[in-house]
Design brief:
alpha+beta, five-stranded antiparallel sheet, 34% strand, single chain, 143 residues, 2 domains, 23% helix
């Protein structure tokens, strides 16, 4: 566990804000007994974890890809090759899980319904993209 008290407090604030919603479907799944505190997360998410990064093509087709992730200082960190499709999709205009978005359509999650993202709000957290090894084209992303 590398997180400071301030990082744990910020993570707990994010978790609390995420669950404070009007989304009945989410609240039905994430009942209080199923939720972890920020402190519990930092104790359980030690070492490499396999993450699934989900992105979408320009025409809306979903793509998923596994990455090796590490939960460090209260945030997920992973790397990928700069030429990878997921790297292009995670560009500056890409929507990342955790972004607050405005939706249009039926957001119930019921089978056969359709909704789309119509706007993304300014992020309250930081997603960084940096070139970590220019000669090999390897880049990194934090979220």
């Amino acid at each position: 566990m590398l997180e400071t008290a301030d990082e744990i407090a910020a993570l707990q604030e994010l978790l609390d804000a995420s669950i404070d919603s009007e989304n009945e479907h989410l609240l039905a799944i994430m009942t209080p007994e199923r939720r972890l505190s920020a402190e519990q997360m930092t104790q359980l998410l030690i070492g490499m974890q396999v993450l699934v990064v989900a992105t979408a093509t320009a025409d809306g087709r979903p793509l998923t890809s596994c990455v090796d992730g590490h939960f460090v200082h209260g945030r997920w960190v992973f790397t990928t090759d700069a030429t990878a499709t997921k790297a292009r999709h995670l560009g500056r205009k890409g929507v990342i899980v955790g972004d607050v978005v405005r939706m249009a359509g039926d957001t119930s999650g019921d089978e056969g319904t359709l909704a789309r993202i119509v706007a993304a709000r300014s992020r309250r957290w930081v997603a960084t993209r940096r070139l970590s090894c220019a000669s090999t084209g390897v880049s990194g992303a934090e979220a």
